[in-house]
TrEMBL record:
Leader peptide range in chain numbering: none
Keywords of the record: Membrane, Transmembrane, Transmembrane helix
Stretches assigned to the DUF1232 domain: 75-109
Location in or out of the cell: Endomembrane system
Taxonomy, superkingdom: Bacteria
Membrane topology: Multi-pass membrane protein
Name of the protein described by the UniProt record: YkvA family protein
InterPro entries to which the protein is assigned, alphabetical: DUF1232
Region (Disordered) residue spans: 1-20
Length: 135
Protein backbone atom coordinates (compact mmCIF):
# COMPACT_ATOMS: atom_id res chain seq x y z
CA UNK A 1 0.00 0.00 0.00
CA UNK A 2 2.80 2.41 -0.88
CA UNK A 3 0.45 4.71 -2.79
CA UNK A 4 -2.29 5.06 -0.20
CA UNK A 5 -1.89 5.42 3.53
CA UNK A 6 -4.09 3.47 5.94
CA UNK A 7 -5.48 6.82 7.14
CA UNK A 8 -6.44 7.82 3.58
CA UNK A 9 -7.96 4.38 2.94
CA UNK A 10 -10.03 4.71 6.10
CA UNK A 11 -11.13 8.22 5.09
CA UNK A 12 -12.20 6.97 1.65
CA UNK A 13 -14.03 4.04 3.24
CA UNK A 14 -15.90 6.29 5.68
CA UNK A 15 -16.88 8.59 2.81
CA UNK A 16 -18.14 5.64 0.72
CA UNK A 17 -20.04 4.11 3.63
CA UNK A 18 -21.85 7.37 4.36
CA UNK A 19 -23.21 7.38 0.80
CA UNK A 20 -24.55 3.80 0.93
CA UNK A 21 -28.30 3.31 1.06
CA UNK A 22 -30.16 0.03 1.35
CA UNK A 23 -30.93 0.08 -2.39
CA UNK A 24 -27.17 0.00 -3.04
CA UNK A 25 -26.99 -3.50 -1.55
CA UNK A 26 -28.88 -4.84 -4.55
CA UNK A 27 -26.44 -3.06 -6.86
CA UNK A 28 -23.48 -4.69 -5.09
CA UNK A 29 -25.07 -8.12 -5.39
CA UNK A 30 -25.84 -7.63 -9.09
CA UNK A 31 -22.21 -6.65 -9.72
CA UNK A 32 -20.73 -9.43 -7.57
CA UNK A 33 -19.11 -11.36 -10.42
CA UNK A 34 -17.49 -8.24 -11.87
CA UNK A 35 -16.15 -7.19 -8.46
CA UNK A 36 -14.92 -10.70 -7.65
CA UNK A 37 -13.06 -10.74 -10.98
CA UNK A 38 -11.08 -7.72 -9.80
CA UNK A 39 -10.08 -9.66 -6.68
CA UNK A 40 -9.14 -12.76 -8.68
CA UNK A 41 -7.21 -11.00 -11.42
CA UNK A 42 -5.07 -8.57 -9.45
CA UNK A 43 -2.19 -9.64 -7.23
CA UNK A 44 -2.70 -6.73 -4.83
CA UNK A 45 -6.26 -7.91 -4.15
CA UNK A 46 -6.15 -11.69 -4.59
CA UNK A 47 -5.34 -12.22 -0.91
CA UNK A 48 -8.69 -10.68 -0.02
CA UNK A 49 -10.76 -12.94 -2.28
CA UNK A 50 -12.06 -15.27 0.46
CA UNK A 51 -12.98 -12.33 2.70
CA UNK A 52 -14.70 -10.70 -0.26
CA UNK A 53 -16.88 -13.79 -0.64
CA UNK A 54 -17.83 -13.47 3.05
CA UNK A 55 -18.57 -9.79 2.53
CA UNK A 56 -20.92 -10.59 -0.37
CA UNK A 57 -22.56 -13.34 1.65
CA UNK A 58 -23.14 -10.92 4.54
CA UNK A 59 -24.76 -8.42 2.21
CA UNK A 60 -26.92 -11.13 0.61
CA UNK A 61 -28.13 -12.42 3.98
CA UNK A 62 -28.74 -8.90 5.26
CA UNK A 63 -30.60 -7.93 2.05
CA UNK A 64 -32.81 -11.03 2.25
CA UNK A 65 -33.50 -10.49 5.94
CA UNK A 66 -31.85 -13.75 6.99
CA UNK A 67 -29.20 -11.99 9.09
CA UNK A 68 -29.91 -8.68 10.78
CA UNK A 69 -27.70 -9.09 13.87
CA UNK A 70 -25.21 -6.62 12.45
CA UNK A 71 -25.14 -2.83 12.69
CA UNK A 72 -26.06 -0.91 9.53
CA UNK A 73 -22.65 0.84 9.69
CA UNK A 74 -20.97 -2.55 9.13
CA UNK A 75 -23.18 -3.37 6.16
CA UNK A 76 -22.67 0.14 4.75
CA UNK A 77 -18.89 -0.09 5.17
CA UNK A 78 -18.78 -3.47 3.41
CA UNK A 79 -21.02 -2.29 0.57
CA UNK A 80 -19.10 0.98 0.29
CA UNK A 81 -15.77 -0.83 0.05
CA UNK A 82 -17.08 -3.24 -2.59
CA UNK A 83 -18.62 -0.40 -4.60
CA UNK A 84 -15.30 1.45 -4.41
CA UNK A 85 -13.54 -1.55 -5.94
CA UNK A 86 -16.04 -1.40 -8.80
CA UNK A 87 -15.33 2.26 -9.59
CA UNK A 88 -12.84 2.53 -12.48
CA UNK A 89 -11.92 6.13 -11.64
CA UNK A 90 -11.24 6.22 -7.94
CA UNK A 91 -8.36 7.65 -5.92
CA UNK A 92 -5.84 5.98 -8.22
CA UNK A 93 -7.57 5.01 -11.51
CA UNK A 94 -7.58 1.26 -12.19
CA UNK A 95 -6.11 1.66 -15.67
CA UNK A 96 -2.76 2.59 -14.07
CA UNK A 97 -0.87 -0.73 -13.89
CA UNK A 98 -0.41 -2.15 -10.38
CA UNK A 99 -0.88 1.17 -8.56
CA UNK A 100 -4.45 1.41 -9.80
CA UNK A 101 -5.48 -1.50 -7.62
CA UNK A 102 -3.42 -0.63 -4.55
CA UNK A 103 -5.99 1.92 -3.41
CA UNK A 104 -8.74 -0.67 -3.84
CA UNK A 105 -6.72 -3.09 -1.69
CA UNK A 106 -6.17 -0.35 0.88
CA UNK A 107 -9.88 0.39 1.13
CA UNK A 108 -10.70 -3.32 1.46
CA UNK A 109 -8.03 -3.68 4.16
CA UNK A 110 -9.42 -0.66 6.03
CA UNK A 111 -12.92 -2.11 5.76
CA UNK A 112 -11.84 -5.49 7.09
CA UNK A 113 -10.12 -3.82 10.03
CA UNK A 114 -13.24 -1.79 10.75
CA UNK A 115 -15.77 -4.63 10.48
CA UNK A 116 -13.65 -7.63 11.49
CA UNK A 117 -15.56 -8.51 14.69
CA UNK A 118 -18.95 -8.28 12.98
CA UNK A 119 -17.72 -10.28 9.98
CA UNK A 120 -16.30 -13.01 12.23
CA UNK A 121 -19.63 -13.22 14.10
CA UNK A 122 -21.46 -13.45 10.78
CA UNK A 123 -19.12 -16.19 9.55
CA UNK A 124 -19.77 -18.19 12.75
CA UNK A 125 -23.52 -17.76 12.26
CA UNK A 126 -23.20 -18.81 8.63
CA UNK A 127 -21.34 -22.02 9.54
CA UNK A 128 -24.08 -22.87 12.06
CA UNK A 129 -26.76 -22.20 9.45
CA UNK A 130 -25.01 -24.37 6.88
CA UNK A 131 -24.66 -27.23 9.38
CA UNK A 132 -28.30 -27.01 10.47
CA UNK A 133 -29.41 -27.19 6.81
CA UNK A 134 -27.33 -30.35 6.33
CA UNK A 135 -28.93 -32.06 9.33
Amino acid sequence: MDNISPEKANEVLQDQAEKVEEKDLEKVLKKQEKIEDKFRNNNSMSGYFEKAKSMFSLIRDYWSGNYRQVPWKTVAAVAGALLYVLMPLDLIPDFIPIAGFLDDAGVIAACLTLVNDDLVEYEKWKVLQDHSEEA
